[in-house]
Amino acid sequence: MAAKEEAPTPGRKKIVIGVCAMKRKATSKPMREIMAKIIEYYGDWLEFIVFPEDVIMNEPVEQWPLCDCLISFHATDFPLTKAIEYERLRRPYVINDLHRQYDLLDRRKVFRTLARAGIEHPRHGVLIRNPETGEEGELVDNGDTLEVNGMVFTKPFVEKSVSAEDHNIYIYYPSSVGGGSQRLFRKINNRSSYYSPISTVRQDGSYIYEDFIPADGTDVKVYAVGPYYAHAEARKAPGLDGKVERDSHGKEVRYPVILTNKEKMIARRVVMAFGQTVCGFDLLRANGKSFVCDVNGFSFVKSSTKYYEDTAKILGNMILRRLAYSLSIPWQMPFQADDPPLVATPGGKIMELRCVLAVIRHGDRTPKQKMKLVVNDERLFTLFDKYDGQKKGEIKMKKPAQLEEVLQLARDLLHEQLDRRNELFRKMEASEETADILSPTKSGVDLEQELEVIEEAIKKWDQVRAVLEMYGHFSGINRKVQLKYLKARQRPSSDSEEILQGPALLLIIKWGGELTTAGILQAEALGKLFRTLYPGIQRTDGKDPDDSQGLGFLRLHSTYRHDLKIYSSDEGRVQMTAAAFARGLLALEGELTPILVQMVKSANTDGLLDDDCNARQFQTELKAFLHSAMQVDREWTADDHEKLNPLGLRSITNALEFIKNPRLMCEEIAGYVQRMVDIIHWHKLNRPHRTLYLSETWDLAERRWTKELRELRRVNKNGDVEFDISKIPDIYDNVKYDMEHNPDLCINMESEFERMYLCVKNMADIVVPQEYGIRKDGKLSVAQRVCAPLLAKIRSDLHRCIESSDEDESSFRLDPRASQGIATPYRHVRTRLYFTSESHIHSLMNLIRWGGLCDVCFPSILSLFPLPSIHPPTFQPNDKKWQRAMNFLSGVTEFNYMTQMVLM
Fold first, then answer.
1. Taking the CB of residue 773, how many other CB atoms lie within 10 A of it?
2. Between the chain's N and C termini, which has fewer beta carbons within 10 Å?
3. For the CA atoms of the chain, what is the radius of gyration?
């Protein structure tokens, strides 16, 4: 009756969806959200009725409400038998097979079903104790091993009740690590397990014993909706420490993760094998494999708007596709969200999007810094030997535990130097009060010199300590310490004789260059924006697609036909940029670390994004030329313009005209750098307790700018002052960094700082791009040596998208036998994202601009690489689009943070 009253037009029937479940499940937030979304999208054709719990429990099935489609699932106290009787009586379309839900209540049947479906699961043995029949399995407990009906399990192993309703699961540990057991249970407040010293297995009841699978402390929970969609989240394994990690809203911390293609096929097989359209199960990842350890049946993601929208669309389409025709409901199958997207090409044609490739520079970073210190303390030699320094003559320490060792040594050495200074002060004070002021062996000058040495050591070790204490923790990404062995050598003494100086170590500490908070926000924002490159979708309610949110991309990615891979160089700032970008691109939540670990692939193994050492000889020659050309103390002539800018780039012409006299410009810049040093020194004396961005101390900031001044302005062998032009990019980095993150320093210089920025930027606009080549042939020589592997990979990516016969493609397509509702199951979109540094951006851009692309497109650039030919469109030299692009690039002054090049 209610359905007729709510019908939008007289006589028009709606499909009634009945929800038959316990009240706590039927009225849960996920269920309410999904029902609301289904009504929002399909309200003209679908409506819900929720069976009252009192009716379910107490009324005969003949009195239950009528429905065309039934959503029903078991939970504690639910009368599954009555639900099956109702299904037999009314014959509704059932979303989750009710008969098969009995299998989910028995872990033995779950494992048997997984085995029949060919799904990897833990090796296990079953022990049945049945007092009624007298059945008793064979169990032999040998301490660290357990024999179950002839199967041997070595600790650690897992003990589960045969009944899936019993959530008390025990993990038993070997005596070598202390024995005992971890006892898991359903979450109670902030606990999900506790440790017990008891090591013996339970002696009553029927149990399944499994091999323990080491999954690095992480469980993956998968939520499938139909055979073609799965959402996955990772959480801290409950057996790790038993503490439930919760966010500021009190929800358990979970990280959305990306399933591999094999795991997506596992999800499909689980849905099909158990007959459960909406189905949750647990995955354990270990040793390159994925194991299903539990199947939970009907379950929803606790909090994800995207998941609710996806589930509503999938279920709504599924129900209407099944029932609309038979019930004479005027519904037509909409454009499928998972069909291949169509886009308008520059030529005006509508074509199918097959491939998106992007090369992206990292986001905003702190200035890269380095400090060197010669040391000969035995404790550092011990550390050197501990990490096999004798074999290679050097060690590199990035792991948190290693950096903690260096920090503790730095603190000890600093305290010792402070004690030495205090002792020296006492000696000097005592010498002034006595007649015997000086000892026969040590003069006042010697004491002063010793004090200077101590003060210098204190300053250096204090800086080392400050660098290692920055951020309050070690991540293994943002700092690195090296120790290099220095052989014993001769050195002159004060009496003109040479003495032997013993072996020492060169301590090099590198820090900075890490992604800032601004850099993370930049990357995440670009990731969100990147979705809009992919076409939107047609909504089933007839409204316009929300392309601004990139829903077309998110829907595409939710199907099994989006092939996404993200590559990064091994630099921490680049890896974190890739992770932040992925978080924005895929609408993920949570911290960057798990996203980085699971999604970003290192590209360093084949030099894909890191290897630019082959170009260093050419770049050294270029730097030498630039150094010479920019030392002249006169205004540049037309000949100078021709030598420095033979390609007539507008950006470099403007910079040359701004600078006029390079010598005077360098002197002006050096004066501004000195002014920065003075300002920071004043702050150090007058505001010592105030810190800079990322807790940088005034000492470190002063050292940063002093180093730039010292390396920029040098005295050569002839005693003349000259300027090291190669340091201009570093100064420009520092200027941009302090403008963004330490604006108070800039305010102190008022209008001077604006002039400083313009001077340094215009110098950098010449130096930076010209370090990758000045003439066309030079640019191509450097570029080929820097990014040949990357270019070959891009060519391979394009080739695989064009050649449909490529065998590798099959792993990214749907099985045609399971392609119901998908118009083109063989097609997919491939996305490849390459995150790198400035050198690869400049080099790749030079190849695209000067490699003959205008004449014959990619083959001319890519002919160096022995791969099958591709057939891209060609451009004519007078192509207007190409000319506009080249004109635009001529005026681009720099490829700043988050610069991206996209090929579609």
1. 23
2. N
3. 35
pTM value?
0.64
Reference 468, options 401, 522, 518; nearest CA is 401
Buried b (16+ CB within 10 A) or exposed e, 269-282: bbbbbbbbbbbbbe
pLDDT digits (tens, 9 = 90+) for 858-877: 444 444 433 333 334 444 55
**φ, ψ of residue 146 in degrees (nearest 5):** -135, 130
User: HSE on the CB side for 95, CA within 13 Å?
Assistant: 29
SS3 letters across 802-831: HCCCCHHHHHHCCCHHHCCCCCCCCCCEEE
Cβ–Cβ < 8 Å for 453, 446:
no
Q: Which residues in 5-68 belong to E strands, given as ranges?
A: 15-20, 46-50
With 80 as the cut, is the pLDDT of residue 602 above it?
no
Q: What is the DSSP letter of 483?
A: E
DSSP of 68-84, one letter per residue?
A: SEEEE---TT--HHHHH
The CA distance from 629 to 663, in Å, is 10
C-alpha separations of 339 from 40, 351, 574 in Å: 22, 13, 33
Q: How far apart are CA 21 and CA 95, in angstroms?
A: 13
Average pLDDT over residues 799-821: 43
The closest alpha carbon to 139, from 150, 130, 148, belongs to 148
- Which tokens hold the place of 688? 């010592």
Q: Name the E strands within 362-431.
A: 369-375, 394-397
Closest CA to 773 of 611, 609, 623: 623
Burial call 298-318: b when 16+ CB within 10 Å, e when fewer: bbbbebbebbbbbbbbbbbbb
CA 229 to chain centre: 23
3-state secondary structure of 773: coil
Contact 94, 117 (CB under 8 A): no
- 689 CB burial (10 A radius; 0-12, 13-18, 19+): exposed
**879-to-334, 345, 855, 876 alpha-carbon distances in Å:** 40, 15, 10, 5
Percent above pLDDT 70 for the chain:
80
Handedness of CA 820, 822, 824, 828 (dihedral sign): negative
| DSSP assignment letter at 865 | S
pLDDT band per the 50, 70, 90 thresholds, residue 543: very low
Taking a C-beta distance cutoff of 8 angstroms, is the pair 257, 593 a contact? no
Of 855 and 432, the structure prediction assigns the larger pLDDT to: 432
Q: What is the pLDDT of residue 611?
A: 56
Locate 713 and state its tokens: 């302005």
